Amino acid sequence: MELDLGPEANKFRQEIRTWIADNAPEGLADLTDWNASSFGSIDESFDNALQSPQYAEWSDRLLKAGMICASWPKEYGGQDWDAIQNTIFAEEAFRAGVPTVNRGFGESMVGPSVMVNGSQEQKDHFLPRIISGQDVYCQGFSEPDHGSDLASVSTRGIIDGDEIVITGQKVWTSGYFRANMIFILVRTDTDAPKHRGISYVLLPFTAENGVDKRPLRMISGAAEFGHEYFDGSRAPIFNIIGGINNGWKVAMTTLGHERSGSATIASLRYEKQFWSLVDLARKHGRDKDPVVRQQLAWAYSHVQVIRYQGLRILAQIAAGKEPGPEASATKLFWSDYEQRLGEIAVGIEGAEALIRAESTGPHEREPGDYIPNFWQNIFLFSRAHTIYSGTNEIQRNIISERVLGMPKEPSAARG
Amino acid sequence: MELIHTDEQEQLRSSLRKFFEDKSPSSEVRRLMAEGTYDKTVWKQMADQLGLQGLAIPEEYGGSGYTFVELAIVMEEQGRALLVAPYFATIALAAQAVLDLGDADAAQALLPGIAEGTTTATLAITEQSGNWDIDSISLEARPADGGYTLHGVKSYVIDGAIVDQLVVAAKAPGGLSLFLVAGDAAGVTRVNEPPLDQTRGLATITFDGAQATLLGAEGAAATSLPITMNKAIIALAAEQLGGARRAMEMAVEYTKIREAFGRTIASFQATKHKAANMFTKVETTKVSVHYGSWAAADNSDDLPVVASMLKAWASEAYFFCAANNIQMHGGIGFTWEHDAHLYLKRAKASQLIFGDDAYHFEQLADRLGV
Fold this sequence. Notes:
The structure holds two protein chains of two kinds. Helix content of chain A is about 45%, strand content about 15%. By secondary structure, chain A is of the alpha+beta class. In chain A, strand 6 (about 210-215) and strand 7 form a beta hairpin. In chain A, helix 1 (about 5-25) packs across helix 4 (about 85-95) and helix 10 (about 325-350) packs antiparallel against helix 12 (about 390-405). The model of chain A is unreliable at about 255-260 (pLDDT under 50). Chain B is of the alpha+beta class. Chain B is built from eleven helices and nine strands. In chain B, strands 1, 2, 3, 4, 5, 6 and 7 form a seven-stranded mixed beta sheet that branches. Chain B has a two-stranded antiparallel ribbon with strand order 8-9. Chain B folds into three domains: about 5-120, Acyl-CoA dehydrogenase/oxidase, N-terminal domain (Butyryl-Coa Dehydrogenase, subunit A, domain 1, Orthogonal Bundle); about 120-220, Butyryl-CoA Dehydrogenase, subunit A, domain 2, CATH 2.40.110.10; about 220-365, Up-down Bundle (Butyryl-CoA Dehydrogenase, subunit A, domain 3). Classes of the chains: A alpha+beta, B alpha+beta.
C-alpha cells in the first residue's frame, strides 16, 4: 500500500525514476549493497565502491543536476526540495539500488546554521564548499565529561587578534576520519551563564592546525567515532557563526534538521533486513521452529509500525503540520527494536555466531583486528542506539515531562 | 489516504468523548455489568442523536455511509469509556459479516434495523473447542421445508444472550454459510456465562433444530468470514487503543497527585519511565490502528497481515498500560472499588478472544509465507 501524496508528488516520482535510470552509471548498483547500513561496520566492498570511477561519475552527475543538497533553498545552490521530494528521491534511489550522495553534517547541520545565522559573506564562502564536497564536516559537540549535557562544554576558545584559538578535547566525533572541517562548540566566556558563553566555530580539522585525531574503537571493532585533542588550533574570527558567545542559539537552530527526509527510508531498510533474517532462518533450518517463527513475526510487526510512523510523518509534512510529540517515541521504538533484532539474529545463527566469519570480504589483517559478520555487527553496534542522540533514559524523561506533563526530578545540580 | 485525522474526524472524536463520559461513567458501567445487560435508552440515543450504529453502513441500507476510519474512532471512544453495550457485537461483527457477504437481500434483512437502533445482533463463530480457526466450525445447517434448521453449540459468543438477532456460521451442504436466527426463536437456548471481563457478555448458545434463514449463498462464508474476522480484529484494536490510552491517563493523573517521601510520585524517574513506555505503546498502536482502519476501508491486500500484526500489538499495548496502571496506583489500584481492574480485565479478555499473541504471530508468519 502506497501513501498517495497527490498528483504533483507522483509526477515528481516519475521524473526522478526516469532521471536515475538515464543517469546511473552502468554497474554502479552492483558494486556493493548501497542499501545496507554500513554505519559502525567494517565493509571493504563499501569502501572500495566509494572509490570507484562509477561512484565518482554518479556524484558528478548529481552535482551538475543540482541533486546534492537539493533541499537547500535555490539561492544557496539547492532545489528547494521539501521533505516529500527528498523522501521520494531517497526511495527511488533505494529501489534502483544506487546511493544518494549527501554531504553529511555539512548538508544537514552546518549549512542550515549558516543560512539562518551567517552573514552574506559567510554564506558565500562556506555553502558552495559544502555542496561541492570540498569541505567535509564532523561535529564537535560532545566532550569527555558531559555527554547529554551539551551546554557544559569546556573546550576553550580565546580571541587573539582576528583569530580564535582553541584548546581542549572532543569525543564521539562521528565520521572524524572523513572530515577536513569540524563545527565545534567552544567556551569563549567563562563568566557568563553556561548557555551564554559558547561560540560556534567552523574550524579546519587537520594535524597542521594542531588537531590530534585518534580513533575511538567501539565494541564492534570498528572506529566510526573519534576523539580529538585541540592544542592551539586556529580559525579566523570570520569562521565564528552567529557572533561570539552566541553559539548555543546557533547550535539549537539545527538540532531539528538531523533526520528530515529519512522517515520512510528507515522502514525500507528494515524490511529488507527482515527478509534477510527470514533467509537466515531458512538457511539454518530454523524457519519451522515455532519459537523462531514467533520472533520473526514479532520483528515484522515492528518493521510495519516503523513504516506506519514514517508514513504518518510524511502525511503530517504534506499537510503542513509539524510532527507532534509522538516523534519522541519513535527513537525509543526503533532503537529497542534493532537491539532485539540483533539478539534474535545471532540466536538463529546459533553456534555459527560464536565465530567471526569473514562475510564482508576484508579479513583481519593485523593482529587485534576484530571484524564481526553482518548480524554480529548489528547485535554489537545496536547497543549504541539506546545511548546516542540522547540516551533512551533522556528520551523517556522528555516524553514524561513535555508530553505527559510530569515534573522534573528534583536536582541540586539543575541550573 | 492520510495517516492523520481530518478536522471533521477530530470533531467526531470530541463529541463522542463528551457523550460517552456523560452516558457511560464508572457508576453506569458498574451497574450494567452487575446486571449483565445494557441501557436501551442510551442505545437509542446513540442511534438518534449521533447515528453511531449506522455510521459505516451504506446509505442504501439506512446508514450514513462513512468508512471504517470513522468507525474506528467510535470503537476507540466507546472502548475508552468501557461502554457496556453490544456495539462491537452488532456493528463490528454482525453488520460487518453481512456487508462482507456482498448480498443485497441479506443486507436489507438486517442492516436497516441496526442502523436505526432498533435491532442488536452478534456473530456466532467459535464452538466449544475454543479454536478460533473457521475451519474448525462444525455446527450443522440442514435444509428443511425450503429453509434450514441449525444443530450444534456455539461458545464465547460476544453479547450472545442479550442481542435480538444471531448471525450464525454453520456448515451447510454447500459449505460454510451464514444464517440469521432470532435470539428468542424456538430451539435456541442461550446461557449468559460468568465472564472474566464483566463489561462484555459471553454466551453459550445451543441450537436444537432452530429455524434459520440463509444469508447470501451457501458456501459464501468461506470467503467472506475471514475478511470479517480481520476487520473485527481491527475494530477491536481500535477499542483496545481507547482503553490503553485511558489507562495511561489514569496512571499519569494519579501519580501527579499522590505524594511519597515528600514529593509527588510522578517526579520519580522510575514512575516517569513507566509512563513514557506506556506512551510509546499507545502512540505506536495509534498509528497502526489508523493504518489498519484504512486497510479495512480499502479492502487492501495486506489486510490479513495487518490484522494479525495488530491483534498482537494492540493487545500487548493495552495489557501493558492496564497492568502498569495498577502498579502505579499501588494498593488502591488493587481494590475492587477502583476502576483499574475493569481495564485490566477488558485488556486480558480482548487479548485472548479471537486468538492471543502467539496464535496471531504464528498466523502472521504463515501469511507472510515464512
